[in-house]
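User: I'm designing a mutation panel for GNAT family N-acetyltransferase and want to avoid disrupting the core. Could you give me a predicted structure to guide residue selection? Please restate the sequence first so the numbering is unambiguous.

Assistant: Good idea. Sequence first, for numbering, then the predicted structure tokens:
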Amino acid sequence: MSTPATVRPARADDAPHMAHVNVRCWQQTYRGLMPDAVLDDPALLTARNRFWTAALSDERYRDNRIAVAERDGRLVGIAMSGPPLDTTPTWTRQLYVLYVYASDHGTGTGPALLNAVLDPHEPAALWVADPNPRAQAFYRKHGFAPDGAGQIEDGVREIRMLRRPAGPEPHPGST
């Protein structure tokens, strides 16, 4: 790597570049888990660009935190968290997106993006493809654990992982 990635809040003009990262990471990560027809659909980039444009400009996403990782003037990763979608969650934030180019795995870019959109002390949830051992190990390393919930989203089996930060340490001598 030439220089470390810089993580910053996403801007409206990042949307087309975020769409490219999103689609390329899907192709790198979900090949074999998701139909090739979906991953190679020429309309996918346009659809993801519309999504990111809305996420960065539409009022309904105002409570989301969106960050990008940039190296040498080029985006190499994206992340987004927001309010939980579940009706009775036991967590305060949900990680919706965290993608880093495979060439940037192991560089610290993923943890930096995660910390940019999730406070390490807030309870959080996410859905991750299963099988996806690399991603699941990454999330375990950052305090997440499977809670037993599963779903099929866009034809991909996913498991839910939760992070419940430990409470304050008990004061010595107290019970």
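For picking mutation sites, this is relevant: The mean pLDDT is 92. Strands lie at 6-9, 65-71, 74-82, 93-100, 124-129, 145-153, 156-163.
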